[in-house]
Design goal:
The complex is a heterotrimer. Helix content of chain A is about 45%, strand content about 5%. Chain A is mainly α. In chain A, the strands form two sheets. Chain A has a four-stranded parallel β-sheet with strand order 2-1-3-4. Chain A has a four-stranded parallel β-sheet with strand order 6-5-7-8, sandwiched between helices. The longest helix of chain A is centred in the middle third of the chain and has 19 residues, at about 215-235. In chain B, strands 1-2 form a two-stranded antiparallel ribbon. Chain B is elongated, with a radius of gyration of 28 Å. Chain B starts with a helix and ends in a 7-residue tail after the last helix. The relative contact order of chain B is 0.16. Chain C has one domain (about 1-145). Chain C is about 70% helix and about 0% strand. Chain C contains eight helices and no strands. Chain C has helices at about 1-10, 10-25, 30-35, 45-60, 65-80, 85-90, 95-105, 115-170. In chain C, α3 (about 30-35) packs across α4 (about 45-60) and α4 (about 45-60) packs antiparallel against α5. The chains are: A mainly alpha, B mainly alpha, C mainly alpha. The interface between A and B is large, with 107 and 100 residues.
């Protein structure tokens, strides 16, 4: 082969063909690593969801119900009547492109269909065809498309490639929220039995056992006991959490990953230490043992179904109010949906901190307070004795998790806690934090193993900013207030910036909190030696 | 390719008006078409807005773009994350009048010594703002044709707009800005591959139509000067519902008025309804006071999850073994 | 060493062209964004590739040893190893150096006769040899990246999620039969 033809080959091979976006063709075999396994039939059956069957995206035939087009058409019509958001978002987009380079999946993958505007156009084009005069008459000239099996497959691919992080919505001049579009599109897909197992199995488990992994009550208790033992080893203090105890002042709800997964367990230890320190009258629940809610990634009805147990349990246990742990999508549900769906919570009392007497006016109706709000108030009132040097082996940055940042706005509270607990805190570049924060790449049920390549692409913008603070400030730990983050960011940094670890905010608080009667600490909650204790600690 | 459609369409519209008025259809183009267009605009837009408003807002889903209002000593972001209805109104107004969200586009730049600086990346924001405000100015300026005597603010606006006094008759700033901004927005769609990829014919039509309207208007004012008195007679006649068909205004004038009519008639059926949509966008027009006040969903379905009693029955033995308290013994 | 000197004088042009060629391997709708957006946080793919291609070009021209090129090479291969590219596509960006070189020095380089041409040909051979070595190094990096991905998968699927549960007891799954399975294991690929 002469050199010239070799060069030509290289060139021809690599330049991808330009294709119109309206012509869909997803090769699921070639794109392994960027989609998730379908929901197992047993889970659909348990939940009473339509069309349970054994299928694979790689099959030519997805075994759809014969009238699937009609089902989706009717489903869309119903939702247009129920959600003003959907109607307005489908009608008002001007395709200005402001969102185009805001999606982490677009930035990391280079796939133009990951531009938020195009993700929405996938649904919008079908809406035009079925529900607008121009689309019916003019077809593709008006941007309308027939809902063919290929289009449906493309929906499955791309709507399970959106983490519902809402970053695009920040930049949209009309506030069009792709998360909302994706949520509705996933509802439609669920109507014909298209969903992913990483979402649907936690939903089924959560409904039955109370939490995503299907942890039964005795195992829940064993796990908590195990963490209590670990804490006693590190601190010399034996904390005494209670489970399913009636008449406690408050019910504490956490994402389940906090009591079974590394590194969430260290955050959980932080909570337990704090509550013991304060002598808080609280209880955990083995029934309401999941703050997370994968219904958010399934359908609005499923959100309500899974969220039901929170108020139900609070009423049964006769607590006064609710405190919630560090979790992103859990807080989207608690903040924006719970009261509307399962309220009014008139059997509870407006939350008041028993330590400081602060009334949490902003939670007067929902009666649920975020642990960072609770702790920030304690710090402000000087109620905590903290030894910051016990985090001196950490140089910390803070990752704003999508939902707390963009569906709530809890930006300062975790920073207050972090700065009170650590001496070395550094911010990432400003267009990657706060409301402009980049997603971990694994939210909305996409944090599974088979989808890892896509997660690593989508997480690149976040990791890239982490690398920046790592190189500039020697950052070796990224704190966050989200259980999904704690799981997915761990994989993300392991690939992109292995020098950096992941933790929760209350883990670091737990390190710094000086407990009455504690033994001299030589390690942090993970058992890693504290700064200056490298030789002393028995690791 | 998609831009061709819009060129063909706008060209055809212009040709229809030109030929039609020449062929004796002056009354149609001067009177019937504007009335029809205006009626279509009003009915169509109302129908669209009512259509949106008829769908409820089941959930309170503002996108929070700043610190929430929680503890009193933490400064909250009153406009970007409003906690009151007034704040939300301010947010929508800021969005509608100043295009707040487009303004958010910052670009980080690496400087010497690894320092970061943040520069504004505001081309889209600036062009959009220039485009919309010059369009508004031009619309208002045209009021001078429809009212006698000319209202004071219109005269003032006209004076300000023509303050540079370039050319006879003077060129208006707004005309130049409109053409430049619309040209920029069109050029962006054509030259930026990612925008070209996502643009539909419906994205080119309004820009091409507006440019054609601007071109015909500029020609009428500066080149093929039309009889302004005749135009004013027509305009005043239209608003007083005593329409007269003007004489000696030429084919180009009919092209201009027909294209304007087309724009108005087209608006409710196109993406141009974004003008109204912004006020109804639930991520922008709601206060983020979710936990403070309960938001009511009118169709809240009666869904009940797995109850505690069912759960206790399922795991009874395990609860007993673990020593956890039971409701039923 | 006339040809090498000529190339060194134009190394910026060479690096730019090579970078453009690499970024053109992405879909055209995206490629121009990747090429033009300079904000490293808004465009991590484009800015990383451009920066590291510059370092690689410099290294190829100066004959830097493999260890010195590992960092820049790793940064690029790491990105391309997770994207929707075949292994050949992911690694082949190195070979695009030859095309950029040809364009920068002119197609006629090394084609004449006489001593000068022979020296040019030798220079060209030398450079091409370095590119070939770098391509092989890229293969190694690519495989290392893929192995790391599988490591991460394996660890996530076993130790991280299940360490505590194994210690504490068994799981209950919905209608689970037999051994507890990881979420997702039942949905077949």
């Amino acid at each position: 082969m002469t050199e010239k033809t070799q060069q030509e080959l290289v060139q021809i091979d690599y330049a991808p063909p330009a294709r119109d976006w309206m012509d869909p063709r997803i090769d699921f075999v070639a794109r392994r690593g960027s989609w998730s396994y379908p929901g197992a039939a047993k889970n659909l059956r348990y939940l009473g969801f339509p069309n349970p069957r054994d299928w694979s995206p790689e099959d030519a035939d997805w075994k759809l119900p014969p009238n699937w087009q009609q089902i989706i058409h009717d489903g869309l019509a119903e939702r247009l009547g129920k959600y003003r958001s959907l109607k307005v978002f489908l009608d008002t987009c001007v395709r200005c492109g402001a969102c185009a380079d805001k999606c982490h999946f677009f930035l990391g993958s280079g796939d133009p269909k990951n531009m938020p505007v195009l993700r929405a156009e996938l649904l919008r084009s079908v809406y035009r065809k079925d529900f607008t005069t121009a689309g019916r008459i003019l077809g593709s000239i008006a941007g309308a498309r027939e809902l063919t099996p290929e289009v449906l497959k493309e929906w499955f691919y791309y709507f399970f490639q959106c983490t519902e992080c809402r970053r695009c919505s920040v930049f949209c001049p009309y506030g069009i929220d792709t998360a909302e579009i994706t949520m509705i599109a996933r509802e439609l897909l669920n109507l014909v039995g298209l969903n992913i197992n990483w979402v649907i199995e936690p939903v089924a488990n959560c409904d039955r056992t109370g939490n995503h992994l299907g942890i039964q009550p005795h195992t829940f208790k064993d796990n908590v006991d195990f963490l209590v033992d670990e804490l006693a080893d590190v601190t010399g203090v034996r904390v005494e959490p209670s489970i399913n105890r009636k008449g406690a002042e408050l019910l504490f709800v956490v994402p389940s990953a906090d009591y079974f997964a590394d590194p969430g367990i260290y955050t959980f230890m932080g909570y337990l230490l704090l509550f013991h320190y304060l002598g808080l009258d609280y209880t955990l629940s083995a029934y309401a043992s999941e703050g997370g809610n994968f219904g958010l990634f399934t359908s609005h009805d499923t959100i309500k179904r899974l969220n039901y147990k929170i108020y139900h349990e609070a009423r049964r246990l006769k607590v006064k109010w609710l405190l919630g742990g560090e979790c992103g999508h859990m807080w989207r549900v608690m903040h924006q949906y719970m009261d509307t769906m399962n309220g009014p919570a008139d059997f509870l009392e407006a939350p008041v901190s028993p330590v400081t007497g602060t009334r949490f006016e902003h939670a007067a109706s929902t009666k649920m307070v975020h642990i960072c709000e609770f702790t920030a108030d304690l710090i402000r009132n000087g109620k905590l004795k903290l030894d910051k040097t016990r985090n001196d082996h950490r140089r910390v940055t803070f990752h704003d998790s999508c939902n707390p940042a963009r569906a709530m706005g809890i930006l300062e509270e975790p920073r207050i806690v972090l700065n009170a607990a650590c001496n070395h805190v550094f911010e990432m570049p400003e267009n990657t934090i706060r409301e402009q924060t980049f997603c971990c790449g694994g939210g909305a049920g996409l944090g599974n193993d088979e989808n890892l390549e896509m997660r690593l692409r989508g997480g690149l913008p976040r990791a890239n900013a982490v690398r920046w603070v790592h190189e500039k400030h020697g950052v070796n730990l990224m704190a966050c207030i989200c259980a999904i983050d704690r799981a997915t960011l761990t994989a993300l940094v392991e690939y992109w910036v292995p020098e950096v670890g992941i933790s929760g905010v209350h883990e670091l608080l737990g390190n710094a909190l000086v407990m009455p009667g504690e033994k001299p600490r030589t390690t942090d909650l993970r058992g890693l030696p504290l700064a200056g204790m490298e030789g002393v600690a028995d690791v | 390719m998609r831009v061709i459609w819009s060129l063909v369409l706008v060209g055809a519209l212009a040709a229809i008006a030109f030929a039609g008025s020449r062929a004796g259809g002056e009354a149609v183009f001067a009177v019937a078409v504007p009335y029809l267009a205006l009626a279509t605009f009003l009915v169509g837009l109302s129908a669209r807005v009512i259509g949106w408003a008829r769908s409820p807002v089941p959930f309170r889903i503002p996108t929070s773009c700043g610190q929430q209002r929680s503890l009193p000593w933490i400064r909250s972001s009153r406009l970007d994350n409003p906690s009151t209805g007034l704040g939300a109104a301010g947010r929508v107004l800021l969005e509608a009048l100043a295009f707040r969200s487009l303004f958010r586009n910052t670009r980080a730049e690496l400087r010497e010594g690894g320092r970061l600086s943040y520069a504004a990346d505001k081309w889209l924001w600036a062009a959009a703002l220039a485009f919309h405000y010059s369009f508004l100015t031009i619309l208002l300026r045209h009021l001078r044709f429809f009212a006698e005597p000319v209202p004071g603010f219109v005269a003032l606006l006209q004076g300000l707009d023509g303050c540079f006094r370039v050319g006879v008759p003077t060129f208006y700033v707004s005309s130049v800005l409109l053409v430049v901004a619309a040209g920029f927005l069109l050029g962006r769609r054509l030259l930026d591959p990612k925008l070209r990829y996502l643009s539909l014919p419906a994205d080119y039509v309004p820009l091409v139509l507006l440019l054609a309207i601007a071109a015909s208007g500029l020609l009428l004012r500066h080149v093929y000067k039309t009889d302004l008195l005749a135009v004013k007679d027509l305009a005043v006649g239209l608003v007083t519902f005593r329409p007269v068909v003007p004489e000696g205004v030429g084919g180009l004038f009919y092209v201009h008025i027909f294209l304007v009519s087309s724009l108005f008639a087209y608006l409710p059926f196109s993406k141009l309804v974004h003008a109204a949509g912004i006020f109804l966008s639930p991520t922008r027009n709601l206060a983020n006071d979710n936990r403070r006040r309960r938001h009511v969903n009118p169709w809240n379905p009666p869904i009940v999850g797995h109850t505690y009693a069912e759960w206790e029955a399922d795991f009874h033995d395990k609860l007993v073994a673990a020593g956890l308290p039971l409701d039923k013994e | 060493m006339r040809l090498l000197e000529r190339v060194r004088e134009r190394r910026q042009a060479l690096a730019d062209r090579w970078g453009d060629l690499v970024l053109s391997t992405y879909p055209p709708e995206t490629a121009s964004f990747l090429r033009t957006e300079r904000d490293p946080f808004r465009n991590p793919v484009g800015t990383t590739i451009r920066r590291e291609i510059g370092a690689l070009a410099e290294g190829l021209l100066t004959g830097a040893d493999a260890a010195a090129l590992e960092g820049p090479l790793d940064a690029i291969v790491k990105i391309r190893a997770v994207q929707a590219l075949s292994p050949a596509q992911a690694i082949g960006f190195v070979l695009l150096f030859k095309q950029a070189l040809g364009e920068v020095v002119g197609e006629s380089a090394g084609t004449g006769s006489g001593d000068a041409a022979a020296r040019e040909l030798a220079d060209l051979d030398e450079l091409h040899g370095r590119v070939d070595a770098l391509t092989l190094a890229a293969c190694d990096r690519y495989v290392a990246c893929r192995e790391r991905i599988f490591d991460i998968r394996a660890r996530a699927a076993t130790a991280r999620t299940y360490a505590l549960l194994k210690r504490a007891g068994l799981l209950s799954e919905v209608e689970a039969e037999g051994a507890a399975a990881a979420p997702g294991a039942e949905g077949r690929p």
